[in-house]
Amino acid sequence: MDKVYAPHDIERRIYERWESHGWFAPHGSGAPYCIMIPPPNVTGTLHMGHAFQHTLMDALSRYQRMRGRRVLWQPGTDHAGIATQMVVERQLNAQGIKRTDLSRAAFLERVWAWKEQSGGTITSQMRRLGDSVDWSRDRFTMDPDMSRAVTEVFVRLYAEGLIYRGKRLVNWDPVLLTALSDLEVQSHEEDGQLWHLRYPLARGTGQVVVATTRPETLLGDTAVAVHPQDARYRSLIGQKVHLPLAERDIPVIADEYVDPAFGSGVVKITPAHDFNDYELGLRHGLPLINIFTPRAALADTVPERFRGLDRFEARKRVVAELSAAGLIERIEKHRSVIPRGDRSGAVLEPYLTDQWYVKIAPLAQPAIAAVSEGRTRFVPENWARTYFEWMRNIRDWCVSRQLWWGHRIPAWYDEKGNIYVARNDAEVRAQHGLGADVVLRQDEDVLDTWFSSALWPFSTLGWPEKSEPLATFYPSSVLVTGFDIIFFWVARMMMMGLKFMGEVPFRDVYITGLILDEHGDKMSKSRGNVIDPLDIVDGIPLEELITKRTSGLMQPQLAPAIEKATRRQYPQGISPHGTDALRLTFAALASPSREIRFELARVGGYRNFCNKLWNAARFVTQRISAADASERGTGSAGTAGGAGTAVQELPLSVADRWIRSRFGRTLSAVEKAFAEYRFDYVATALYKFTYDDYCDWYIELTKPVLEADTGAVDAEAAPARRAAQRTLAQILEALQRALHPLMPFITEEIWLRVAPLAGVAGETVMLEAYPRAPDFAVDEQAEREIAWVQRVVLGVRQIRGEMNISPAKRIPVLLKDASAEDEAHLARHRTWLQRLAGLESLTLLQPGARIPQCAMALAGTLSVLVPMAGLIDPDAEAERLGRLLARAQTDLEKIRERLARESFVRNAPAQVVTLERERAAELERSVTGLAAQLDRVRGLKA
Question: pTM of the entire structure?
Fold first, then answer.
């Protein structure tokens, strides 16, 4: 094996070998296990959230594959209607071309060309992350078979009256010129104004005052409303007010929707441009006056002087004219919720237009019941409450979009405006007896992207055909996704799956947390804190990282600050860490938390873990010869020739028995953690076993027998040597299998080299059996003995650390208050203690023996003593500790003073205050520890 682990040299080679052999496809006769990948948008690249979720999906896929399941991890990408059309339109605009300058067919040709050119970015990233998806089944939501499924669903729902066309208010994006669903709206409070306007009574000299944040919409008012029990206005109900500027009279109506305590208690009603007003207008039969064009300019329904004005310019004109007429009572600063499109960022308009809707209530009830009855389970279970809350308050789903890219709605119109829904033009004519002379025009709109995504669990498997994959892998085993698309996607897949398959689409829904930066901030381009996962894998120079973060900013003025922050945070750029280190980091972070902070330093720690594992493998391969391996024969993993019971033929040392027992306990914990989707527990258990038990203890415990002069090894010691060699190899081989779902590349490389030494034959670790806890029986007695050795060694190491004694210096140790069991352990394990603790001598003190001046640590009831004579100069050590203590106390006092200042705590960034508090706590611990050490050293002087 190479001296240094170089992931860049092995990862691509290994993945190409896996893929070329077709090992990702379902195989065997085991029970099916299926994961449907949340299809990423074809427009984008995989971000940290994707990489996080893909790590977990791949871990599950590899784990279940190794447990004998027939695994399908279904890959694919989404056509992303709005996002993709925006990308291509921007490219055209850069060439001075508008979309409308092209025919629909010509524009779609451009989109498909762009998709073919850029759509491979995501799949190449998935390969770099080690995704073991079945590439032979890769799907795209606009593939012919997928489009056929979309059409089939639409036609069937329409036939059942569950899809209809109606004129209703929608969220209208005046930039993209399309309707949006409620879930595509980003609503946030923004600063604005509240205008209090006077509407004169139509008869007499009185007036009412209404408050509005959108004075331009008064041109579409068709009533003012008061609460029926509001005594102030009871006499006005049924009368009319004169609508300023529009020169119309509108009625005063009564409705309990009005809050008498808000403003004057009188509300202007604009049914065509406010969702609440729309519902009120339906109740009272009010006319709907649409005052806007699709681009949010004022339409021909308003007085001529306002026509064609942009809505915000119209607002200024309306306010100016009202002010001139003395019809503004007052203007106040006001914060209100502004709806913006999640793609364009434009302020949306409630807009009256014809759209297609899914009647959602009949579909929602079975989906609610499925989760209530436990047929689908949310993990963590608290997310079920979020699901229920939305599903029980769900509205009909607007599924039409005024775009060109997407699944075109399968509806046709004749010249009389009759609507025909069918699978194609020919079917329309056949079903309705229309001849070739009847002109039919297909609906121009396309379906919401989420409509096709809702069919993903069964359309990817061949529906509406009764295919073998559909029968085998539906319903899928688990969906891994984020909480932000429970409504967008999870709920809709539940409804469509139950409707068209009669069964839930997945048994479990595992909801992941949101990946944040190290300060707890959401990663975004404008914050300049986005990290490309492949930049962590492969590394990236500083200047290239800065260019990546500052190019394409929506607000270019942010670039200098982002550059400065990047230089401060990554002065040398990002060094390469390899895929396995990143994946292990993600697994370790995968707790049930809603928010997950990502720190690059942690990946560096797991990169060191990869090095540790690599070096352990080098040690084992260097200590076991081909001749040693040939004695054992071969078999598959876990069989008599492999890591199973064959090792029992040799006399196992207590260390050999201990490491097998510890591995068995680890495997039990891992199996339980995988079943509960606690990837963090899986990672922690395997990390601790590998780092602590195998590398730091077992390898060191085997060195005395392995490094003994082979010529001097007697017949009695030779079997012990062979047993240690076998145990080293067999545990390391099985450990690669255990780690493989989280760290596929390094484990494959090591396994191919170690498996023959463990007597295991196979082509790849990914197709070997996952190790089972029963094959590594728990040995309580061996664990107690090694725990005794560890306590003594750690006691000596504690004294070395506290007294600043070099690890290289061999020291004498005295053991006091030893029991009979301690004496027996000492007799058996003296060699281990002397080697692991670096001892010059080891003496068991008899009761009443004179004890020299010593530093002491406890190993259970046993006292571990190190005589200080000749090891340290008490005066010099006290002076050194005194300087460290004084410095720590000074630093602590400064931080305490800073935190005591209210202005600092109030004005400093929250993360700065948090870091200062953490630093204070760290210094407090240091002061306490240094003071205790200083007391011990002074005690030695006395």
Answer: 0.86
